[in-house]
Amino acid sequence: MEMFRNLFPEEIDLLQRQGCAASCWDDVWVAAGFDPLRVKNVTFSGVNYLGRFSGEVDFPGGVKKKTGIYHALLHNCRTGDEVFISNIRNYIANYDIGDRVVIENSDLLAVEGETAFGNGTMVDVLDELGGRQLMIYDRLSAHLAYIMAFYRHRDQLQEVMERLIREYSTRVRSSRGYIGAETRIASCSQLINVRIGEGAVITGASRLREGSINSNRHAPVIIGPGVVADHFIISSGAEVSDSAVLSNCFVGQGCILTRHYSATHSLFFSNCQGISGEACSVFAGPFTVTHHKSTLLIAGMFSFLNAGSGSNQSNHMYKLGPIHHGIVERGSKTTSDSYLLWPAKIGPFTLVMGRHHKNSDTANMPFSYLVENNDESWLVPGINLRSVGTIRDALKWPRRDKRKDPDLLDCINFNLLSPYTIQRMIRGRKILRQLQQIAGKTTETYTWETTFISRSSLERGITLYGMAITKFLGNSVISRIEKMKPASWTQLKACLEPQSAVGCGDWIDLAGLIAPKSEIARLTGRLEAGAVESLAEVEQFFRELHARYYELEWCWAARLLEEELEKPLAALTPDDLTGLIRHWQESVIGLDRMLYEDAKKEFTLNAMTGFGIDGDGQTKEQDFLKVRGTFEKNTFVTEILEHIRRKGDLGDRIIHLLEELQKTEKE
User: Which residues are registered as beta bridge partners of 307?
Assistant: First the structure.
């Protein structure tokens, strides 16, 4: 109150002559330096506070307008300095408006009663009937949502998490809204019970109701024309535009939902993209992408997904309603017109091709093709390990991380090979060997779960899984040696010993965060015991666990090393490690050669079809060359060749180091 004063009589007189009115002029307070010439045709009701207006606002096309308030009705509002409010057709009520905010050509902005601005909203994720219903809040991470959605059998755990979110929602509950500094709102219809952070750009929104737009100066939020959103939270750096429609949704950092995308009761975490399609009760982990109008994602959990045109799933069998859900694990793709019948579980980095009417479970066969053939599901185990597309995806995800906010909500592990995927390959290789042993090596077709596997696919799968396991193990050993820099064989053996047993068991993927199952069990146990007092503690636990990934990975890799070499670490010899490194070189280079050959397919004569449209064969090749370039100069191809060279040199260098350490030990 000390910063504001009542209007002087001459100011009131001037304001009235400029078309202004107030239910009580004593309830209009102004800041020092207030210029009444900048307030015209404004009606005040309730108690209002006005900032200082002395500057200009820049608009597209080089247009400048003087800050101030023009043609508006303000009810119980507080405006910051240098705001520009103009042409409000209805009114603005119960809002605190930050410095340099622009609001123009809009209808209604109001807070009605008390609201938590979308916090505490219930989302019927995965199960449309609400069996996995969870609460959203401003700082929801994919990892906490994973625990809330999939650990429903832990009643005490669910009660604690819901209580913590309710407490957070109570703290942010208010009868006043907030519009952060430098936000721009133009040509919008209705904003009801919406809280807006700094730097947001909201243009042409049709209706925003009961939500939070958590924009900030590092990562502004963009809301575009025609957007309708009810009961929502939109995180920093996200874009929702072009008539997207959201209801009961959480939109994570760096997400893009646009071009009439429709979503209800769904969660979208970091860097998801939804364009033109539809989502219903979806748990979209980081980098879930769908770009096609004909694509429906329903009642499924996805992450690092690329959904092809016409991809679809069914979550009911026309009996008890839409009660089923499916899980498509990280890195998978669905081709055009693919179909999956829920319940189903698709293993990591799987390509789903065709229509699958049986309840598939390929969790232990990662990096596979699941292909329809004569209305049956055929599995090609491990074949994606030699696909150039898989490696390209793994390289592009970090580059496509659109998050600019220094405060990241999701902890994302981009590793293609990790304890999480390697443990699946170990199980997959064991299953394939058992099938081979039981049915015989000469069997042409093997049956596993609801799928068929050809003999050649089975044999190749065993080989590919073995190469990938060796590649991971060699990577881990070499990284450990390079990090610890041992000066003797004794030191080397000591550095190979894990510092703790944490991480030795199963690993899980909590929608982006790859972690030991035991550590998540420790967190959930502490939550159930009441040892966690705030959601901030849970966030910090995830961050620390993510930061310890390579330390914990080595604990797991060290045990795998013992299993693969069939001896304890203490008994390892230089010859054991030298043999492993040579095997690693063969596996890495072998897989790279496969990628090289796979990439070469994009430069065959068949790939040139459609080029040189009005010419002969020579014109076709010339046109292709201009558009695609040569195979040898393709950036990805040159990177493969460079990778082969680097890994060969690295292996030779480590082998030389082992030999030197062995000599030193003997001396």
Answer: 290, 334
Q: What secondary structure does DSSP assign to 581-641, as a single string?
A: HHHHHHHHHHHHHHHHHHHHGGGSTGGGTTSSTTS-HHHHHHHHHHHH--TTT-HHHHHHH
Question: What type of residue is 122?
Answer: M
Q: How far apart are CA 104 and CA 106, in angstroms?
A: 6
- Kindly report which listed range (36-45, 338-347, 358-367, 478-487) carries the lowest average pLDDT score: 478-487
User: From its phi and psi, is residue 79 left (phi > 0), alpha (psi between -120 and 50) or beta?
Assistant: beta
* Encoded tokens for 248: 């009961």
pLDDT of residue 12: 97
Residue 381's nearest CA partner among 360, 403, 396, 362 is 362
CB 232 within 8 A of CB 251: yes
Contact status, residue 327 vs residue 150, Cβ threshold 8 Å: no
- Distance CA(164)–CA(421), nearest Å, equals 33
SS3 572: coil
Q: What is the pLDDT of residue 603?
A: 82
Render 46-73 in DSSP notation, one character per residue: S-EEE----SEEEEGGGEEEE-EEEEEE
- How many Cβ atoms from other residues are within 10 Å of residue 378's Cβ? 19
Backbone phi, then psi, for 287, in 5-degree steps? 60, 30
Q: What length is written for the chain?
A: 667
| Residue-by-residue DSSP string for 444-469 | SEEEETTEEEEHHHHHHHHHHHHHHH
For residues 301 and 325, the answer to whether their CB atoms sit within 8 Å is: yes
291 closest CA partner among 276, 278, 304, 305: 276
Say how far residue 505 (Cα) sits from the centre of its chain. Answer: 26
| Mean pLDDT along residues 44-51 | 98
Helix, coil or strand: residue 105: strand
Cβ partners under 8 Å of residue 448, min gap 6: 379, 431, 435
Residues 495-502 have a mean pLDDT of 90
* Residue (of 169, 183, 172) closest to 216 by Cα position: 183
Alpha-carbon dihedral 404, 410, 412, 418, rounded to 10 degrees:
170
The reported pTM is: 0.95
Rounded to the nearest 5 degrees, what angle is found at the Cα of 343, between the Cα atoms of 342 and 344? 90
User: Across residues 387-402, what is the average pLDDT?
Assistant: 88
pLDDT in tens, 93-148: 999 999 999 999 999 999 999 999 999 999 999 999 999 999 999 999 999 999 99
- Half-sphere exposure for 360 (CA within 13 Å, toward CB): 32
Q: How many angstroms separate the most distant Cα atoms in the chain?
A: 102
User: How do residues 446-459 score in pLDDT, each as one tens digit?
Assistant: 999 999 999 999 99
Give the integer Cα–Cα distance in Å for 547 and 263: 33
**How much of the chain exceeds pLDDT 70, in percent?**
99
* Tokens matching residue 122: 């219930």
Dig out the tokens for 660 from the structure: 């030197």
Amino acid at site 618: Q
Amino acid sitting at position 50: L
- What is the H or E stretch that residue 44 is in? strand 39-45
What average pLDDT is seen over the chain? 95
Q: pLDDT tens digit string along 56-73?
A: 999 999 999 999 999 999
Q: Which DSSP state fits 360?
A: -
